[in-house]
Amino acid sequence: MQEMKSAQSKSVDQMACSCLMGRVRILSRVLTGLYDEELRPFGIKGSQLNLLVVIAKQGPIRRMDIGNLIQLEPSTLTRNLQVMLKNRWVEEIDDGEDARGLPLVATGAGKALLDRVSPAWHRAQRKAQRLLGADGAALVLKVSGSLMDASIR
Fold first, then answer.
1. Cα–Cα distance, 44 to 70 (Å, whole number)
2. d(CA 127, CA 144)
3. Which member of 19, 62, 68, 136 lies 3.0 to 4.6 Å from 132 by CB, making a disulfide possible if both were Cys?
């Protein structure tokens, strides 16, 4: 019994100290907080800005393709898109294909919002880079870029 507890305790210690998933989730929450704080005056969250940027750059783009590109669960994507559609930052366009998954594009209002939030995004970006350091920021960009490249293939 004591041996089993000791093995379990060792596993818990390892998980607590070196679990990559747990550490990345902490990092994600801290970085999200930095961006959300800067974006708050504009009525947009970092998660929504991320989607708006993807749609502005890649659009017209279908929900499924957005989810695959940025590894986003359908329910999270839908929840954020509802806010964005309501605020008219994005819109669905009829491309004559499958009406169940209409492509999305950034609207004039969405593009104008991107212009207005740019200084706030730059402030958040500088804070994040200071927090991570040059090597940490470069590693985040490298790993996430590789994941995004793999999802396009």
1. 18
2. 19
3. 136
**CB atoms near residue 21 (< 10 Å):** 8
- Return the structure tokens found at 101: 């998954």
Query: Structure tokens of 9?
Result: 């305790």
Contact 121, 39 (CB under 8 A): yes
Burial degree of 83 (CB within 10 A; 0-12, 13-18, 19+):
middle
Q: How many CA atoms lie within 13 A of 3 on its CB side?
A: 0
Residue 89 burial by CB count (10 A; 0-12/13-18/19+): exposed, middle or buried? buried
| C-alpha span between 37 and 11 (Å, rounded) | 37
Question: How do the pLDDT tens digits run along the chain, 153 residues long?
Answer: 566 567 778 889 898 889 999 999 999 999 999 999 999 999 999 999 999 999 999 999 999 999 999 999 999 999 999 999 999 999 999 887 766 689 999 999 999 999 999 999 999 999 999 999 999 999 999 998 888 888 766
